[in-house]
Design a protein that fits this description.
single chain, 378 residues, alpha+beta, Butyryl-Coa Dehydrogenase, subunit A, domain 1, Butyryl-CoA Dehydrogenase, subunit A, domain 2, Butyryl-CoA Dehydrogenase, subunit A, domain 3, 4-stranded antiparallel beta sheet, 53% helix, elongated
Length: 378
């Protein structure tokens, strides 16, 4: 697996693995049990440069690529997928500024985000729209040198915890998808409120909830790119987000595989370890094969992003496969652990819940299949 990774990428992976095991692993169970947003993990990731892995050095980033970022996310997700998703939602938002923001926006906002001074959230989804971003009802009307925003967003990761929100809104309803724009709102903007936070079955430490926008006035300089660029910005960030989601799936699947191997060697039945039984070996073989395949799909999609090639289909393939492979691996590791696998005393039942939550993130499996099929047919 290291054949196509540079020495720097391998060092990053090993460094993040050490950080995750030392600083994040011990808190993962408590975060899940209490459904607590781990703000301290955000600070620690910022201190280790993990909020700026794929961003230029001139803005405080590490100056590495999407493949490198995928390596880092996988290692974080192996021990705490909640923390990995918080990181991804933040970096997803920062990509909108890095790819489309003005020099002034990058200098202030992107730099602040990379340093961990501002946590980000990209507010796209609406309760009636889901993956249909073109049907966005949130509106931004021009009033002199300002935009006045009104609307409601739902199921937004980092809602209520983030300091900076990128809002997808319509600046011209007559233009349909070409009238969508991306506009920044800071948390203390008058008229910006936060509604219900969802009580999730998995990744319980993330704050995913409702954003209420009522007569929020912001300078027109808060527009990212140009009016009408909103869909382009959103889709570009979503593609990268799906690669990141795929890396998190690989991390969960690898954690499940590692737990299965470890437990099967320690658990004895009828005078020998259960790792010697063919039924267990076949499950481990299937898990190992799927982890390897998911990782390769993820890395391939990431490498296309780094080459600035079109990678929408490949991102969907990676996200589809890795999220479903993670769930299969989690179910297998529960089976291997037997009754103990059902106990909340251990970690393996958490892998199952987190994997199922991941399958819904960045578009369901059904949505990914639609995207893949449309690209293949075209």
């Amino acid at each position: 697996m290291d054949l196509y990774l540079s020495t720097r990428q391998q060092e990053l992976r090993d460094r993040v693995r050490e950080f995750a095991n030392k600083e994040l692993a011990s808190k993962a169970k408590e975060i899940d049990r209490s459904a607590r947003f781990p703000r301290e993990n955000v600070r620690e990731m910022a201190d280790h440069g993990l909020l700026g892995t794929p961003f230029p050095i001139e803005y405080g980033g590490v100056g590495m690529d999407m493949l490198s970022y995928s390596l880092a996310l996988e290692e974080i997700a192996k021990v705490c997928s909640t923390t990995a998703i918080i990181n991804l939602a933040h970096v997803f938002t920062a990509f909108s500024l890095c790819l489309f923001g003005s020099a002034e926006q990058k200098k202030f906002y992107l730099t602040s985000m990379v340093r961990g001074e501002m946590l980000g959230a990209f507010a796209i989804t609406e309760r009636t729209g889901g993956s249909d971003v073109v049907s966005t009802k949130t509106e931004a009307k021009t009033k002199g040198d300002e935009y006045v925003l009104n609307g409601e967003k739902s199921y937004i990761t980092n809602a209520g915890q983030a300091d900076l929100y990128v809002i997808l809104a319509s600046t011209d309803r007559t233009k349909g998808s070409k009238g969508l724009s991306a506009i920044m709102l800071e948390k203390d903007t008058k008229g910006l409120r936060f509604g219900k936070t969802e009580d999730l079955i998995g990744m319980r430490g993330i704050s995913i909830g409702q954003i209420l926008i009522e007569d929020c006035s912001v300078p027109r300089t808060n527009l990212i790119g140009n009016e009408g660029d909103g869909l382009k910005i959103t889709l570009s960030c979503i593609d990268r987000g799906r690669v990141g989601t795929s890396a998190i799936g690989v991390g969960i699947a690898q954690a499940a595989l590692d737990a299965s191997i470890d437990y099967s060697k320690k658990r004895f039945q009828f005078g020998k370890s259960i790792s010697e039984y063919q039924a267990i070996q076949f499950m481990i073989a299937d898990m190992a094969t799927e982890v390897h395949a998911a990782r390769l799909l993820t890395h391939y999609a990431a490498s296309l992003a780094d080459k600035e090639a079109r990678f929408t289909k490949e991102a969907s393939m990676a996200k589809l496969y890795s999220s479903e492979a993670a769930l299969r691996a989690a179910l297998n590791t529960i089976q291997i652990h037997g009754g103990y696998g059902l106990s909340r005393e251990g970690s393996v039942e958490r892998y199952m819940r987190d994997a199922k939550a991941l399958a819904m993130a960045e578009g369901t499996s059904e949505m990914q299949r639609m995207i893949i099929a449309r690209n293949e047919i075209k």
